[in-house]
Amino acid sequence: MPEKQKELFESDNLWKSILSMVIPALLAILVMLLYNMADMVFVGQTGETAQVAAVSIVGPVFNLIMAVAMLLSAGGTVLISKDLGAKNEEHARQISAVCMWGAIFLGILSTMIIVGFGKPLLEFLGTTPDTYSYARTYMIILALGAPFLLISNMLGQLLRAEGAVKDGLIGNLAGTAVNIILDPIFILVLGMGVGGAAIATVMGNIVATTFYLRYMKKKAVVLNMRLSNAKKKPLLIFTVMALGLPNAVSTVLSGFANSFANRLLSGYGSDSIAANAAAGRVNQIIVMVLMGICMGVQPLISYNYGAGNLSKLSGIMKRILILCTVGGAMTTALVISFRTATISLFLKDASVAAVAESIITLLMLSSPFLGLFYLATNFLQATGKAASATVISSLQKGALLIPLLFILETIFGFYGVIYAYVVADFSAVVIASIALIINWLKVKKELQTVLHQNLKLHTKGDYGNECYN
Fold first, then answer.
1. pTM of the model
2. Which pairs with CB-CB distance under 8 Å and at least 24 residues apart come from 407-414?
3. 198 class by beta-carbon count within 10 Å (0-12 exposed, 13-18 middle, 19+ buried)
C-alpha cells in the first residue's frame, strides 16, 4: 500500500483519519443525493405531477439495481479493508476481481429480468392509468443501463477500501455533472420528459464507470479485474455477498416499502404520490448524511479490526457517535429552514407542495436519530457479523415498516402512511442501539483475548531467548 494511504489508515490522529474518510464520503453521498434528486427536479419543471409520480413509482427498480451493487460493494469494501489491515494484499486482489466480474454478470442479468418482466412489475409497483406510460419509459431505459449503474456504484465504494477517497469522489462528481447537464437538455429543451431523465442518468453512470476503470488500470493498489485472480477462488463471491447482504436487504426492502406506500397512496390520487415522493427526497438529505458518515468510516473500522487494534477501534467508535449526533441535529435544522424552497423545486402546484411540507415535518421527528441505526449495521458488517447486520437491516424498512403501513393507513388514512415511517424509524433505532452495545462488548472481549495471547507468546519467546543466551 502506498505510504500516503497507509498513513491514512494507521495515523494516531484519529480525528484526522476519520475526517479524511468521512468528508469525501459525505461529499460523495451528497453528490449521489443531488444525482438522485436531479431527475425529479427537472421532471418537476414540466408541471406534470403524473411524471413526478412516475419517477417515484419506478424508484424501487432503481433501488433493486443499487441493492445488487451494494451486495458486492459493501462486502468487498469490508473484506478488502480487513485484508489490507492484516497485510494480505494477494487475497484483497482476489476479492476485487471477484467483485468486478460478479458486477458484470449481475448487471446483465438485472437488465434481462427487468425488461422481461416489465409489465407485471409496473402493475405491482402501483402505476395508475395516467402514470403507466411514463413509468414504463423511465424503467426500460434505466434497465438497459443497469450494468453501468451497477458497476459505477460498486467501484465508487470499493475505491474507499484502499483509501482512494479522492478518486472515488471525482468519479462520482464527473457522473453527476454529466447527468445534471444533460437533464434539462433532454427533459425540457428536447421535450423528452422522464425518458430524457433516464437517458441522462445512464450516460452519467457510463462516464463514472469509465473514470473508475481508468483509475483501476493506472493507480489502483489492489483493485483489478483480472480474470486469473477471480478464477483462483471464485467462491469468494459468496463471502462478499454475505457481508453485503445487510445493505442489499435494506435497499430492496426500502423499494418494496415505497411500492406498498405508493399503492396505498394511489387511492388518494397521483398528487398524493407526488407529494410523498417530494417530501421523501428532501428527507433523504438527513438520512444520506448520516449514512455517509457511517459508511465513510467503515473501512477504518474494518482495517483496525483486522489489525487487532482495540484502542484505535474504540476511539473511532466514540468519535463517530459524536459526528452522528451533531450531523443529525445540524442537517435537520437546515432541512426545516429551507423546506419550502426545496419542495418548490419538485412541485409547482401550491396545494400539493403544502401537503409535502406537512409530510416533511412529521418525518423530521425520527430522521435525526437514524445515525445510530447506520452505525450499528456498519459496525456489524465491518467486524464480520453478517447475519446480525442482515437482521438489523431488515427491520427498518421490512419487518417494522411494511406491516405498519397497512395498519396505520387503515386507522389514520393518508397520514397513517407517514406515521408508519416515523414509528418504524424509532423502533429500528432502539433495537439497533441495543445490538450495537452487545456486539461492541463481544468484539472488545475478542480483541482483548487476542492481545493477551500475543503478549503471552511474546513474553514466552523473550524468556526462552534469555535462557538460551
1. 0.69
2. 409/264, 414/265, 414/268, 414/272
3. buried
